């Protein structure tokens, strides 16, 4: 997998990456050793776990919203914006899509509803991100700060709704919305457990790659991200460009929320896409915001997180221990795979 | 955009998707399984719900030495649970216990995709037709909770009892109602004050809920949380009494412990496993919303031991009530009146387990607090 | 107890862990380093505090261990940010996941352990003052310690040479360097001190408030602390107010419920966040200009 991320690097970089990842793997191995587990058998069962067909599906199922959450970070980053709000934008995407499904309420069904839900979710995510963009442009509040705060508001908004207006009266009493009707869901791909939301994520990745690389908008984004003052002098409307970057980012995350809702979860409930936004953020930074690489990084992080299942089932270690492996890999990449930047 | 090779995603009604995934469908669900999987929403040693279920899993492990027992803790009540059950199935499990209330949706999803796998869920209720390879199981735990309510009603000096619960689901509401009815049966002035935490185990929220109830003059606390240590210790530290739930936490409150209700899943888990292994699951009593309690003698719970303050007279009252419930009586024997004065069960009526679960949407008179709207 | 007193008491009780973390984060941010890993430091502090209390029987030793654990995670953050030039926000999140993973791994053995926790200790005389006594002086010792911490931190940051160095590291690092001071060392110390305090906050949660350990038991309080620092613009006294505001929102729901009123907790939970945003909007431009230069740099347009 890493070979794909490395596409543009030279041999030295490959060695640096290999050493960094190797060190992370060794460090994690030593850690599990302290808990009495054999690192070799731990790694071998982790590997078996993600390559077996059931879990292989699980990787892409988990990666689907994660790819979109990561792209939601990558696009604003091109314009120099730090979007920590994927977490909230995913949830608001899900909330808008659920709202659309409730509003339609059987008057339409199937593909048409799915399209409506995708549009609603994208608009929801974009609006949520736009709040942060506008706060920055109008009042000078940094978007990293506001998107972080908006995450909690988004989660509270969803939870409020499922405890209140949207609570399924025919449900089990535990707060959740009613399910998305079967006909309105993303269909499964073939005999797999992966749903068509993955295609949305893949198409979005290609689209973002093309937009950033080959359009005037992508060019403006890069100029603004590189040097806003120069961009201004060159006649680029910096404010509008920043806003558009956040809107597109938010829309992508919103689609991620729709994908999870209509592809896997089917209901809004507590814990909906919890921490996916932050993992997406890290995937984007892991791949330095290059769209194709970002998508690959999202799949890699999904795979790592799924190996947590194996940690418990095969090695009797808590599943959440896998967060240590993920963190070590990220630290190794952040710390040792590029020319050292000037200390902040 | 989407090719025709797409399958439909999930089954609400529960008719298992036939021949989806090509599993051998000639064997009955669960028959000849080499492994059994258990998923828990919390840690296996939470002095509570998950610990009790885990102990049940370990009993299965001991008594079925040929079976591999797979367990996974801290499994969220979201679609993530589906993936973990899928992994267990890939490891040979054809019998899955999804032990948390909120695991029902993922459990049904997995069951629909694997008609050859028995998926049973603990405590929830399948409203539609129950598919051939699924079921829910639970004990009528409101019976021992009623008995504990008697002890609480006798123990309180302020006539205020406190109940910290997680979600307003039927099993919880039935417990709160039974607790209050038990207390009322010996102390007509006893009232039960309720606070919900919207979380199975958030110790900080539990601590705050306990403080709020104690501040209202509550002197006997009980709870419906998965992890029970925090509230038990909070009551003991405040010099209040505490009624346990899920597991024996008497060591955490040597002074204030009254009694409580504990799970003992061994017999039921083992019977479900055996039924499934023998290929007899479909059509069995477990292929339904199965409930058992004091009346049928299969109750998967026991009353906790008594604390030092419980008098012999109280113990005798409880023993008498227990005999009555096992025989002709019920904690909900009419008349039972709701908070708003509406009649739930008329005088003399002994409702069935199903009727009690169906009526558990409102608090009875004597409970102070509202059920969150929805 | 009347409702306002109960809620304010609950605000102090529930806000104290957040207060420690937010004072710590204020120090780090004053030196120009944001640490989103505060949540991870709190978790590490909660586990280490609980585990060491369980093993030694002494909660003070536990708190000390909690501080060390929180500081150690903050050191990881400082190392990658200051030494390896990694992005602050991304590294902070990684540190959070690191803390989550490590505490899951080493915490599993302590879920069922019991401890002799801190107990409430009424301050003589002061606790008898009507209203104020109940709200402020009937708590655990760590709460009283936080009352001391806030003015001391303010004094040190604003009125002493050390404070000048910390502020200088955040605002005018070049000047500091010119005078021969090691800017990076100052920043290291500030970030690690922030982590130590977050660790104490976590330990307060596990050994004085909830008296138990569970995986991920901080439930986002470290992020709340970061939000509080934004609200407070790195001023310890304002951080105290902000922490208690969040504490009050948590205390209001059970207090109302215990009186028989159902309330949607999540509407209440939103209020403090909305308050933070409103404050930012009202003071936005002024605040942004006041922020340490080093901090502005973090938030500036930059892609790497």
Question: How would you characterize the overall build of this protein?
Answer:
The complex is a heterotrimer of chains A (344), B (374) and C (304). Chain A is an all-alpha fold and 344 residues long. Chain A has helices at 2-5, 11-34, 39-51, 53-78, 86-104, 111-139, 143-163, 197-214, 216-226, 228-233, 238-265, 276-286, 291-315, 322-336, and one strand at residues 188-189. Chain A has one domain (2-336): ABC transporter involved in vitamin B12 uptake, BtuC (Orthogonal Bundle). Helices cover 73% and strands 1% of the residues of chain A. In chain A, helix 5 packs across helix 6 and helix 5 runs parallel beside helix 7 (143-163). The radius of gyration of chain A is 21 Å and the shape is globular. Chain B is of the alpha/beta class. Chain B is built from 10 helices and 16 strands. In chain B, the strands form 3 sheets. Chain B has a 7-stranded mixed β-sheet, sandwiched between helices. Chain C has a single domain, classed as Orthogonal Bundle (ABC transporter involved in vitamin B12 uptake, BtuC), CATH 1.10.3470. Helices cover 75% and strands 1% of the residues of chain C. Chain C has 13 helices and 2 strands, in the order ααααβαβαααααααα. A two-stranded antiparallel sheet of chain C has the order 1-2. The mean pLDDT of chain C is 91.
Q: Total domains of chain B, how many?
A: 2
Q: Helical stretch count of chain B?
A: 10
- Structural class assignment of chain A: mainly alpha
The CATH topology of the largest domain in chain B turns out to be Rossmann fold
Name the CATH superfamily assignment of the largest domain in chain B. Response regulator
CATH class of the largest domain in chain B: Alpha Beta
- Choose one word for the global shape of chain A: globular
Short description:
Chain A has 344 residues and is mainly alpha-helical.
Features:
heterotrimer, B: about 375 residues, alpha/beta, Rossmann fold, about 35% helix, about 20% strand, C: about 300 residues, ABC transporter involved in vitamin B12 uptake, BtuC, two-stranded antiparallel ribbon, 2 strands, about 75% helix, globular
């Amino acid at each position: 997998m890493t070979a794909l991320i490395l596409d543009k690097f030279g041999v030295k970089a490959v060695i640096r990456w290999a050493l960094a990842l190797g060190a992370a793997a060794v460090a994690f191995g030593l850690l599990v050793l302290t808990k009495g587990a054999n690192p070799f058998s731990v790694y071998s069962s982790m590997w078996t776990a993600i390559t077996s067909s059931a879990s292989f599906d699980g990787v892409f199922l988990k990666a689907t919203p994660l790819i979109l959450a990561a792209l939601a970070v990558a696009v604003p980053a091109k314009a120099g914006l730090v979007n920590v709000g994927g977490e909230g934008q995913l949830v608001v995407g899900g909330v808008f899509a659920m709202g659309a499904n409730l509003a339609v309420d059987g008057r339409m069904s199937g593909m048409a509803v799915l399209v409506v839900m995708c549009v609603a979710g994208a608009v929801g995510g974009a609006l949520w991100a736009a709040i942060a963009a506008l706060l920055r442009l109008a009042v000078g509040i940094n978007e990293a700060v506001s998107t972080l705060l908006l995450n909690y508001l988004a989660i509270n908004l969803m939870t409020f709704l499922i405890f209140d207006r949207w609570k399924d009266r025919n449900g089990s009493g535990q707060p959740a919305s009613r399910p998305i009707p079967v006909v309105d869901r993303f269909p499964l791909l073939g005999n797999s457990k992966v749903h068509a939301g993955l295609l949305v994520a893949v198409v979005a990745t290609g689209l973002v790659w093309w937009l950033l690389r080959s359009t005037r908008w992508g060019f403006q984004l890069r100029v603004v991200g590189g040097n806003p003052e120069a961009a201004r002098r060159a006649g680029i409307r910096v404010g509008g460009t920043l806003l558009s970057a956040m809107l597109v980012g938010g829309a992508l995350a919103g689609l991620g929320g729709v994908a999870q809702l209509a592809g896997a979860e089917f209901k809004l409930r507590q814990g909906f896409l919890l921490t996916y936004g932050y993992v997406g953020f890290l995937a984007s930074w892991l791949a330095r915001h290059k769209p194709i690489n970002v998508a690959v990084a999202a799949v890699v992080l999904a795979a790592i997180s799924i190996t947590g299942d194996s940690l418990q089932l095969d090695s009797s270690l808590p599943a959440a221990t896998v967060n240590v492996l993920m963190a070590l890999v990220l630290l190794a990449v952040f710390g040792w795979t590029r020319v050292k930047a000037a200390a902040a | 955009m989407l090719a025709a090779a797409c399958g439909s995603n999930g089954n609400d009604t529960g008719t298992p998707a036939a021949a989806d995934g090509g599993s051998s469908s000639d064997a009955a669900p669960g028959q000849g399984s080499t492994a059994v999987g258990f998923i828990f929403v919390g840690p296996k040693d939470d002095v509570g719900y998950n610990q009790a279920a885990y102990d049940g899993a370990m009993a299965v492990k001991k008594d079925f030495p040929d079976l591999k027992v797979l367990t996974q803790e801290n499994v969220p009540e979201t679609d993530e649970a589906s993936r973990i059950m899928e992994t267990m199935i890939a490891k040979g499990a054809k019998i899955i216990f999804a032990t948390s209330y909120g695991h029902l949706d993922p459990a049904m999803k997995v069951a629909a995709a694997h008609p050859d796998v028995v998926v049973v869920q603990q405590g929830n209720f399948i409203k539609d037709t129950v598919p051939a390879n699924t079921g829910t199981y639970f004990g009528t735990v409101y019976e021992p909770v009623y008995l504990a309510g008697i002890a609480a009603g006798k123990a309180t000096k302020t006539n205020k009892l406190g109940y910290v619960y997680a979600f307003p689901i039927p099993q919880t509401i039935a417990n709160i109602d039974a607790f209050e009815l038990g207390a009322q049966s010996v102390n007509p002035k006893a009232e039960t004050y309720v606070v919900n935490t919207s979380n199975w185990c958030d110790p900080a929220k539990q601590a705050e809920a306990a403080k709020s109830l104690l501040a209202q003059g509550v002197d006997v606390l009980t709870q419906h949380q998965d992890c029970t240590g925090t509230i038990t210790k909070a009551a003991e530290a405040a010099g209040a009494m505490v009624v346990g739930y899920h597991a024996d936490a008497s060591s955490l409150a040597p002074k204030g412990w009254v009694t409580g209700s504990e799970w003992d899943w061994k017999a039921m888990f083992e019977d479900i496993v055996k039924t499934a292994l023998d290929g007899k699951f479909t059509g069995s009593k477990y292929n339904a919303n199965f409930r058992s309690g004091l009346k049928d003698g299969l109750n998967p719970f026991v009353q906790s031991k008594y604390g030092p303050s419980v008098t012999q007279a109280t113990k005798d009252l409880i023993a008498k009530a227990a005999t009555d419930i096992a025989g002709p009586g019920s904690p909900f024997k009419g008349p039972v009146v709701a908070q708003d004065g509406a009649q739930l069960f008329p005088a003399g009526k002994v409702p069935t387990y199903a009727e009690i679960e169906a009526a558990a949407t409102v608090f009875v008179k004597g409970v102070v607090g509202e059920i969150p709207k929805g | 107890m009347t409702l306002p007193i109960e809620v304010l008491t609950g605000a102090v009780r529930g806000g104290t862990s957040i207060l420690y973390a937010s004072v710590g984060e204020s120090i780090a941010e004053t030196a120009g380093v944001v640490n989103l890993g505060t949540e991870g430091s709190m978790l590490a502090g909660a586990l280490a505090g609980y585990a060491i209390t369980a093993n030694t029987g002494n909660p003070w030793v536990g708190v000390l261990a909690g501080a060390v654990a929180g500081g150690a995670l903050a050191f990881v953050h400082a190392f990658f940010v200051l030494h390896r030039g990694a992005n602050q926000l991304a590294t902070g999140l990684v540190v959070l996941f690191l803390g989550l993973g490590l505490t899951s791994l080493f915490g599993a053995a302590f879920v069922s352990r019991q401890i002799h926790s801190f107990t409430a200790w009424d301050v003589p005389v002061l606790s008898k003052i009507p209203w104020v006594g109940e709200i402020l002086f009937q708590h655990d010792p760590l709460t009283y310690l936080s009352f001391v911490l806030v003015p001391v931190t303010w004094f040190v940051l604003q009125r002493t040479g050390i404070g000048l160095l910390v502020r200088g590291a955040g605002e005018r690092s070049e000047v500091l360097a010119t005078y021969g001071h090691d800017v990076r060392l100052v920043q290291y110390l500030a970030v690690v001190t922030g982590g130590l305090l977050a660790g104490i906050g976590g330990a307060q949660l596990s050994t004085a408030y909830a008296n138990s350990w569970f995986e991920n038991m901080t439930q986002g309080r470290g992020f709340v602390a970061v939000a509080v620092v934004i609200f407070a613009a790195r001023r310890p006294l304002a951080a105290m107010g902000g922490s208690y505001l969040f504490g009050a929102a948590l205390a209001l729901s059970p207090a109302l419920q215990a009186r028989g009123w159902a309330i949607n907790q999540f509407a209440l939970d939103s209020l403090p966040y909305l308050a933070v945003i409103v404050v930012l909007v009202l003071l936005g431009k002024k605040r942004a200009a006041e922020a340490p230069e080093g901090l502005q740099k973090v938030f500036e347009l930059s892609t790497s």
